[in-house]
Task: inverse folding
């Protein structure tokens, strides 16, 4: 469940402009660049108001005109935040010698799970669970800095936490009921925080132990599960607590418990549920199967604190951050702006370590610095709503139609195509092909960094590529990448067909005398067993490609010919380089040779033979050749920033200040400083529950942001904007089954009310209530009520 408003409103405003779409004509491209230069000259002269003869309604790309990312150790980061030469330290806390300076602010997200593994001589479930209770009893005796005791794998940073509130309380009670002697417990530790906890509570960490405390970074867990394929972002439910719990705990299960967990997991990812109550019960069943044997348990978590310079004029403002990824997320680079610039300026960011992952858009950019670079250079179709587990539009707008509770029911039209596993060939779908979901997409197209115009072929080749490399023997000559195939399996299994309906073109005057042509491909995608809310479904396989088809094809050829591998694991197995489009001179030379050959031959992949002519292909390869010669790298994309400079310790990104980029200032500003709903009171009286709520908000006052709290009423505003309010309640039966998940009734006087069903069987029932503002489900305020129903069905 992803509480909050309809996230189709996640785009703050529909962009005024889209891509200028013309054929590969140097004259037209020169004209487009000239318009961009003229526009930005008028903006600079007008001080941001566009008053030097032009009223401009679109400001392309995002606030800083450059982003500098440096690898800095925590002590250096603390010094530079202190002397205001660093705007933010991403992914870690600086090592301040004392308290942080007054001008330094911080943001908190989920940092790490603390996981207890039990085995060895602890052969039975009883012995493992007893040992776990002893460990938790010791951990719970007093607070430990940086650690939150939480013996349950779904945390308050997960959007589905409200489904588990009663189970969390029960887990705390069950694992805190012994009088264990800490000295008798020999525990191993993996990770700095785990080692510090074990040393503080149990003495020196044991080198060989049946019990091991391990720190598992939450962001790394998401990255390991994610499909970061060239603008696709998945699996769609990758931030849900139940999904991450399965990733974290299932590998340790015995056969019987694993089968039970797998069945619940498959039902969740295939959407085999009728309503929210059944979904909640499946989540709870999954978690119970994951923890029942006590082989691996989450005992708590460590929040991550990231720091920024908050002072005017040297600091930054307008901060959005992700509940799990923190500042290292696409939404951060799309919202942060310097306090002394309405736009432009250089955003100075630091991370702990230099990049050690390869830079490729298929299976690279996996470390902290790489993820941050790709968040700015790449442009996903949708990006995460930062404070829940749903998605919001970025480069596609989607309308989802689903036949509930059925595996089929929507006929896939014969004009649709389906890419073939192992080859990527785009064949017409077979007769009587059915889907359970149809997603209609509007695609916000724009040119790529080498000047190539985004076309239907780029959209279709993303599907061809995905199908080709989802098979065990992909790419020809027996070449495959199991890591990539495993992540593409969900798309391969669910995709039933793709149909390009049309490409809409229209002219837009963005300023007096300045007109661009807007291109919007309209595409239908048909899916089977697509689970989640509408935006999670839309994120599964959108018609989008943030790098052009010719670059994807070039990377494929490099892999098939043995020059490099897409993933780190496959590179290690085959003893060849991990494919890097920027920092591998030897690979660059080989790829330049292939580009020259492909330009001569007008090469295009078999899947595109009917969609791209030899002449069009030659123009694409020529554009790529010229890009490499001018830029010195091959990282061609169509995101808001482009790679300008790089060294092992420093990267400089430059904003794409062209009117062809369809998104601009303010697009995601509604996701900064999210408001939070609080439960102030919850009372039950004769079958009716009444809830009063409050609103915690951060409001801008001049150059500062001030927290405020007030009662949540229908008239409550967040500054000049109204709040989007969602409420939820769970009715849970005495045996723990969720009977109902629904919204509360919001009365005119601001109260939320629940009318209990009549004639409930006797017993002690639990009601969990929560209120969410603007979709913010992070660290929710919840309340539990216990209501006893007597033998007549009357509430006590």
Result:
């Amino acid at each position: 469940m992803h509480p909050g408003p309809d996230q189709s409103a996640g785009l703050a405003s529909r962009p005024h402009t889209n891509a200028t779409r013309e054929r590969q004509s140097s004259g037209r491209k020169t004209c487009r660049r000239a318009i961009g230069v003229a526009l930005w000259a008028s903006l600079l002269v007008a001080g941001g108001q566009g008053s030097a003869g032009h009223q401009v309604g679109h400001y392309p790309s995002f606030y800083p005109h450059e982003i500098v990312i440096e690898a800095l150790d925590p002590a250096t980061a603390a010094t530079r935040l202190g002397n205001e030469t660093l705007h933010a330290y991403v992914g870690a806390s600086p090592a301040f010698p004392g308290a942080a300076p007054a001008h330094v602010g911080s943001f908190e997200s989920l940092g790490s799970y603390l996981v207890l593994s039990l085995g060895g001589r602890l052969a039975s479930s009883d012995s493992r669970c007893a040992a776990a209770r002893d460990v938790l009893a010791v951990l719970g005796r007093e607070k430990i800095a940086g650690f939150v005791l939480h013996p349950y794998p779904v945390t308050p940073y997960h959007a589905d936490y409200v489904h588990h509130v009663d189970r969390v309380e029960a887990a705390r009670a069950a694992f805190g009921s012994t009088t264990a002697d800490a000295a008798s417990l020999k525990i191993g530790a993996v990770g700095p925080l785990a080692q510090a906890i074990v040393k503080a509570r149990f003495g020196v960490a044991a080198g060989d132990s049946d019990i091991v405390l391990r720190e598992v970074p939450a962001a790394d867990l998401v990255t390991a599960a994610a499909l970061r394929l060239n603008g696709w972002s998945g699996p769609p439910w990758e931030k849900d607590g139940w999904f991450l719990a399965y990733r974290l705990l299932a590998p340790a299960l015995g056969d019987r418990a694993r089968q039970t967990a797998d069945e619940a997991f498959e039902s969740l990812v295939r959407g085999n549920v009728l309503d929210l109550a059944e979904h909640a019960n499946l989540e709870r069943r999954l978690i119970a199967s994951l923890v029942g044997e006590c082989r691996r348990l989450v005992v708590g978590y460590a929040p991550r604190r990231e720091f920024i310079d908050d002072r005017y004029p040297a600091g930054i403002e307008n901060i959005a951050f992700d509940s799990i990824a923190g500042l290292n997320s696409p939404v951060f680079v799309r919202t942060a702006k310097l306090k002394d610039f309405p736009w432009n300026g250089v955003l100075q960011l630091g991370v702990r370590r230099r990049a050690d992952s390869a830079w490729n858009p298929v299976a690279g950019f996996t470390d902290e610095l790489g993820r941050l670079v790709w968040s700015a250079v790449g442009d996903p179709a949708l990006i995460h709503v930062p404070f829940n587990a749903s998605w919001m539009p970025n480069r596609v707008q989607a309308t989802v139609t689903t036949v509930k509770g059925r595996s089929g029911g929507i006929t896939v039209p014969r004009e649709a195509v389906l890419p073939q596993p192992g080859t990527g060939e785009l064949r017409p779908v077979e007769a009587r092909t059915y889907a359970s979901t149809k997603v209609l997409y509007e695609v916000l197209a724009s040119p790529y960094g080498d000047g190539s115009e985004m076309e239907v072929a780029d959209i279709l080749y993303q599907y061809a590529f995905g199908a080709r490399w989802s098979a065990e023997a992909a790419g020809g000559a027996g070449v495959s990448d199991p890591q990539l195939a495993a992540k593409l399996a969900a798309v391969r299994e669910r995709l039933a067909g793709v149909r390009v309906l049309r490409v809409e073109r229209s002219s837009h005057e963005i300023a007096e005398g300045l007109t661009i042509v807007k291109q919007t491909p309209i595409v239908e995608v048909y899916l089977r067993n697509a689970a989640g809310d509408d935006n999670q479904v839309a994120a599964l396989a959108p018609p989008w490609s943030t790098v052009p088809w010719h670059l994807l094809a070039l990377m494929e050829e490099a892999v098939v010919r043995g020059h490099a591998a897409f993933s780190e694991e496959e590179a290690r197995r085959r003893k060849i380089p991990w494919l890097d489009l920027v920092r591998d001179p030897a690979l660059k030379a080989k790829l330049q040779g292939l580009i020259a050959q492909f330009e001569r031959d007008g090469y295009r992949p078999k899947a595109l033979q009917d969609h791209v002519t030899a002449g069009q292909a030659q123009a694409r390869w020529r554009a790529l050749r010229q890009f490499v010669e001018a830029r010195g790298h091959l990282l061609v994309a169509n995101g808001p920033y482009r790679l300008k400079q790089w060294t092992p310790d420093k990267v400089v990104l430059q904003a794409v200040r062209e009117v062809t980029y369809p998104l601009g200032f303010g697009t995601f500003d509604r996701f900064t400083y999210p408001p939070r709903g609080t439960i102030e009171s919850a009372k039950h009286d004769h079958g009716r529950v009444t809830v009063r709520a409050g609103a915690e908000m951060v409001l801008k006052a001049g150059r500062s942001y001030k927290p405020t709290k007030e009662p949540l009423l229908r008239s409550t505003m967040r500054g000049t904007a109204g709040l989007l309010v969602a409420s939820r309640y769970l009715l849970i039966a005495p045996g723990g089954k969720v009977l109902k998940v629904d919204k509360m009734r919001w009365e005119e006087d601001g109260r939320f009310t629940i009318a209990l069903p009549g004639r409930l069987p006797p017993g002690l029932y639990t009601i969990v209530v929560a209120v969410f503002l603007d979709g913010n489900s992070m660290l929710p305020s919840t309340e539990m009520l216990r209501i006893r129903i007597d033998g007549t069905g009357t509430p006590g």
In short: Confidence is low (pLDDT under 50) at residues 4-55. The longest helix spans residues 26-45. The radius of gyration is 27 Å.
